[in-house]
Automatic annotation (TrEMBL), chains A, B:
<feature type="domain" description="Ion transport">
    <location>
        <begin position="61"/>
        <end position="286"/>
    </location>
</feature>
<feature type="region of interest" description="Disordered">
    <location>
        <begin position="1"/>
        <end position="22"/>
    </location>
</feature>
<dbReference type="GO" id="GO:0005216">
    <property type="term" value="F:monoatomic ion channel activity"/>
</dbReference>
<dbReference type="InterPro" id="IPR005821">
    <property type="entry name" value="Ion_trans_dom"/>
</dbReference>
<feature type="transmembrane region" description="Helical">
    <location>
        <begin position="490"/>
        <end position="511"/>
    </location>
</feature>
<keyword id="KW-0472">Membrane</keyword>
<feature type="transmembrane region" description="Helical">
    <location>
        <begin position="523"/>
        <end position="545"/>
    </location>
</feature>
<feature type="transmembrane region" description="Helical">
    <location>
        <begin position="187"/>
        <end position="210"/>
    </location>
</feature>
<feature type="compositionally biased region" description="Basic and acidic residues">
    <location>
        <begin position="11"/>
        <end position="22"/>
    </location>
</feature>
<keyword id="KW-0812">Transmembrane</keyword>
<feature type="transmembrane region" description="Helical">
    <location>
        <begin position="85"/>
        <end position="105"/>
    </location>
</feature>
<dbReference type="Pfam" id="PF00520">
    <property type="entry name" value="Ion_trans"/>
</dbReference>
<feature type="transmembrane region" description="Helical">
    <location>
        <begin position="462"/>
        <end position="484"/>
    </location>
</feature>
<feature type="transmembrane region" description="Helical">
    <location>
        <begin position="222"/>
        <end position="242"/>
    </location>
</feature>
<feature type="transmembrane region" description="Helical">
    <location>
        <begin position="254"/>
        <end position="280"/>
    </location>
</feature>
<feature type="domain" description="Ion transport">
    <location>
        <begin position="405"/>
        <end position="611"/>
    </location>
</feature>
<dbReference type="GO" id="GO:0016020">
    <property type="term" value="C:membrane"/>
</dbReference>
């Protein structure tokens, strides 16, 4: 892409001098504007055919379809060996082939849109091609091996989440990865210093405590092996084994407690804070650079769009765009925008009322959300004018709009919460649920009869939607449940669960009544998209680790149902786990035997190391080996911290 | 204090019109400048006697003495019942009386310095008076009770740490407390929402899992009591009981794992982030307000100092201060400043060389640390000129200054680290220690013979000081140890411990060789003062909790030495603890039986709940930024860059 942003692309100068703009010109300008609007950085071919293909390429249906197929591809792990729901090999293979076909089609489409030399220079396209080829190769090899009944590994599954990063729409994700990669060198210095600090402290611990003949709780020698000390002190940084690791030394002398407290102060608090500060600063620095580049590209796109539609008046002077052309362009970019909204934007641009503008800011203007508030009369007003203007009806209106109505329903919700907490086997309680349902339905109907329905269910009335959906679902589920109970005489556990969840969710509505709470919730909803990008990032990393973990550790640890009488149940089916606290604490289900349990296990490992979200995924691989070690090393002293407070509380009663 | 910062205090206008300034004028101006320099906000009486008393009040010896007595007062808890080192009641009482006397004396001194009505309006003075009275009252009551052999509680000990906050020098601490207090209302809303979220999730957990008949590891019913669920889920926010709390449900169905993961996502990650953000923002807001006020007061003080010394030239015009007066003032404020440094400051102020200035920025200029590098010849050069200029000596100089010399010693340190890690009972290893000591001594001597000693031991050469002190201490300790060993035939454990610590500390020196590491360490040293303020804050809170805990829980849990054969040992001397995991995990020493064990216990509790403290750490870092900001605000445009760059240079180079 050219560095000089005002340079016009070749071949457009000619067209822009003509007064009458063709349909293709508008297509081209619309592409530039919508690229700028959605921060797309794609260098499209300017031929009319490519432009039309590009408009199709950006159609939302195709994008959604692509993500659906990526999701299907990722979800295949549920059905492949080791499976949650086993399917025959040919079925998963067929679905995967279909996915590969879709991805290839999408890539071919993309190749037709941008110039050939640009396509082959872009690493993300090369990446997708390599992924597709390797996957195909792996499928053939695996199929052949299985056909001849030999052992095979589906290694190409590790590559699947990389598609999420490399598709054209994964811009945000690529940006996040790039920022992380750029920040790594700076982070590594702090990390090295942190490791150095642990090593020095471990050496000191070895020299101070190794020769005292101290014993741990299970009678083994305490702090005599350097590498064991390093491991214990590393775990102490996460505070997972505090205070267990310190107790033998503390029992011998309280000076050792000072050593451990100093260690935690330096490593857990000071180092982790510095670490976080460095990560945050560097990430911010590189993200800022990314955004700066984004803005440059955006400007460039707008200048190009402008150069396509510009007109030079007969007296010479600055080139401008007139109102008719502008309207046509905006209609093409956002067909569903109302006329009033479009005219509002024009008046913002043409604030001197000259009938013509220079529009570098249009893309940002289009992104501004304009809430159109139409004060429409209530339909009842036109249907039953006499009834609607009667005194009782007006009184009802005033009642529903009154603050006391909100407070009344908050109280009802609180009473409901108490009833939910009580035992539902009591018939009185279960009948009361019907009463609450009726009360909630009444509330919605009352509100609907007072407020204009289209305003009530507008796109921004999150809580109205929430309320109505929850109440109606609860009504349906309760009716189904009663029907099943009265006909068959038994209750379905699943439907009951759904009813319980819906009942409890209804209580959340209270939050909306308190202004401060509403502000906090709205803020959370606002940062949703950022969390979504982060979620994808986590998904990519978890998926890769889960696949690798499954291939390495599958069936090493087995889970037996509670009613199983298998003798192997007491040691999770692995003789190495006999007598370990891993087996004793009933952790058998924490294994890599399926994609679901792998994900849950990885989340558990992340949670224990909560001290740094940003670092968690760097250390996850290490955690896998830590997990492997846990299978062999007896007596892990983790996860016991809080017992001690509980005991303290019971003892002081 | 007046809001109009340019208003002159009454009674000074007269004096400032005289051309010859008296000694008292300089005293007064010096007070204003040094008050501004150290951000003191004290409204001093302007009478010459009060000014002289105030100069004495701010003398560093008196301040150090005050803090020593506060420390003694706080440390009394070590000797009072329940004591670590028991002392008779009369001894601690006498020391406490002495402390009270010192505090009273200091307060009286303060009362003489500031106007009477200001003294009685200031809540911190009232606070100190009340603390002193209550302490005296409590001592009398307790003494009387003890004399008549009755039970008494020394309740006034809780008030002791409040002295730290209320003494004149506790400005930073008061500022921190005030910011926290002001931020509390905003924080409480997020906290309430957080509590609400836990209650709702607990209700859902009760309804979903309460009726499934699940059992925990020890066979008790799982998730059947609402309040137990709330407690378990609260603990889960700190991730301390993850994944134990989830295992019974997860073993029954993996859908429940999703419930727990969602809970952790919402409460541990999202809510804690929002909580942090709100705390951080509010703390920042209020701290900014505090700093703004500080800057206003600072300006006011400087204007007053100026008005004392200003001269109006005969032609009228702006009042100024001439060079002689300025020099005399600076000499009085900072007697140890070198002439060159003072002249440098003057030339910065009087950049147009007019011989007279208006000096609102002096206070900030005085705070700038100017490192004076004097290139003095080495003393050897003057003592033995012939030897020092000889070829082998010059070669040695080049060798020692070479990069390879540093690398050589880094390698020696690493080899030393390996030797330390090996078993010191091996005679070869223990003799090698002598070799390393000699090598380190040789390094210091070589460096001393090449670099100028006063530059080598300058105030900013942290690592040279560190090195020399460690090596000399290690030498002395090793010699003492050998003497003891060869004479008595036994080794003293304490001396060996000290030797080990010194040996390991020596290894830290490696950090200095790598530039990036040095930068990180220097940054940590720079934020030291901020951490110190925070440390005092923690101390105040811990002390109060420790004293209350000791009175409530002392001797409830007893610790028995490992070789004790007391039957009560297995349950920490408390029958209620029989068979609990508290006793089983050997936590008996985690008790409130003395101030030391109370502090260690409180630290342990803090570490497990580390999330609640992380916000406080963040705010500490913020103070460092504010410190920079504070320097920026008062400076006029011309000096702003100068100050900022200078500060940046000293802070982050």
């Amino acid at each position: 892409m050219s560095e000089n942003i005002y340079e016009d692309p070749p071949g457009e100068e000619k067209r822009s001098s003509e007064s009458e703009k063709s349909n293709e010109d508008f297509d081209l300008a619309a592409i530039y504007v919508s690229d700028a609007q959605y921060n797309r950085n794609i260098c499209v071919d300017t031929s009319p055919q490519a432009v039309r293909l590009y408009l199709l390429y950006n159609h939302w249906v195709l994008k959604v379809l692509l993500y659906v197929f990526i999701l299907v591809d990722l979800c295949l792990a549920v059905f492949e060996d080791p499976a949650v729901v086993p399917l025959p090999l040919w079925a998963t293979m067929l679905v995967e082939l279909l996915c590969l076909f879709v991805f290839t089609f999408r890539l071919t489409h993309y190749a037709k849109v941008i110039p050939r030399e640009k396509f082959w220079k872009d690493p993300k396209n090369i990446c997708i091609i390599v992924i597709l080829m390797l996957t195909l190769l792996d499928m053939i090899i695996y199929g052949a091996l299985k056909a001849s009944d030999q052992y095979g590994v589906r290694w190409s599954r590790v590559l699947r989440p990389l598609l999420l990063v490399n598709v054209t729409e994964g811009r945000q994700l690529r940006r996040a990865f790039r920022s992380i990669r750029n920040a790594l060198p700076e982070i590594s210095y702090v990390f090295l210093l942190f490791i150095f600090s642990i090593l020095i402290f471990s050496l000191m611990a070895l020299k101070l405590m190794g020769k005292r003949g101290l014993k741990t709780l299970d009678g083994s020698p305490y702090f005599t092996n350097y590498f064991e000390i390093v491991f214990e002190l590393y775990v102490l940084v996460t505070t997972a084994n505090s205070p267990d690791v310190m107790m033998p030394a503390y029992n011998s002398s309280f000076f050792f407690a000072i050593f451990f407290i100093f260690y935690i102060l330096v490593n857990t608090y000071i180092f982790m804070s510095v670490f976080l500060a460095v990560v945050y600063n560097n990430y911010k620095k590189y993200l800022k650079e990314e955004i700066r580049q984004l803005v440059r590209v955006k400007r460039q796109k707008m200048v190009r769009a402008f150069s396509v539609l510009q007109e030079v008046s007969e007296q010479g002077g600055v080139p401008t765009v007139n109102h008719a052309h502008w309207s046509r362009l905006v209609r093409r970019v956002q067909p569903r925008m109302s006329n009033a909204h479009r005219e509002l934007l024009w008046s913002v641009l043409d604030h001197q009322n000259q009938g013509q503008v220079q529009f570098v800011q249009v893309a940002d203007l289009l992104n501004i959300e304009v809430i159109t508030l139409k004060s429409r009369p209530h339909p009842f007003h036109s249907w039953f004018p006499a009834l609607y203007s009667s005194t009782p009806c007006l009184l009802l209106c005033r009642l529903v709009r009154h603050r006391a109505f909100v407070i009344l329903y908050d109280i009802i919700i609180l009473v409901n919460a108490v009833f939910i907490g009580l035992d539902e086997d009591n018939p009185l309680i279960s009948y009361s649920e019907w009463m609450f349902l009726v009360l909630y339905l009444l509330e919605i109907l009352l509100k609907l009869s007072v407020f204009e329905p289209r305003a009530f269910f507008s796109r921004h009335s999150f809580w109205n939607w929430f309320d109505t959906i929850i109440v109606i679902c609860a009504l349906i589920a309760t009716i189904i449940n009663s029907a099943i109970t009265s006909s068959g005489g038994y209750t379905s556990r699943q439907i009951l669960d759904i009813i319980f969840i819906l009942r409890v969710l209804r209580l959340i509505r209270v939050v909306d009544s308190i202004k401060r709470f509403r502000t906090i919730i709205n803020t959370l909803i606002r940062i949703g998209p950022a969390i979504l990008t982060f979620g994808q990032l986590i998904l990519v990393i978890y998926y890769i680790f889960a696949i690798v973990g499954m291939e390495l550790f599958k069936d090493k640890v087995k889970f037996f149902e509670a009613d199983s009488s298998d003798p192997e149940k007491s040691f999770c089916g692995n003789p190495q786990l006999k007598g370990t606290s891993f087996a004793h604490l009933n952790y058998c289900k924490n294994n890599f035997n399926s994609i679901v349990s792998s994900f849950i296990l990885l989340v558990e490992l992340t949670v224990v190391n909560q001290w740094s979200w940003s670092w968690a995924w760097n250390s996850t691989y290490y955690e896998c080996f830590l997990y492997l070690e846990q299978l062999q090393v007896p007596a892990s002293k983790k996860y016991r911290n809080f017992l001690f407070i509980k005991e303290l509380m019971t003892c002081f009663h």
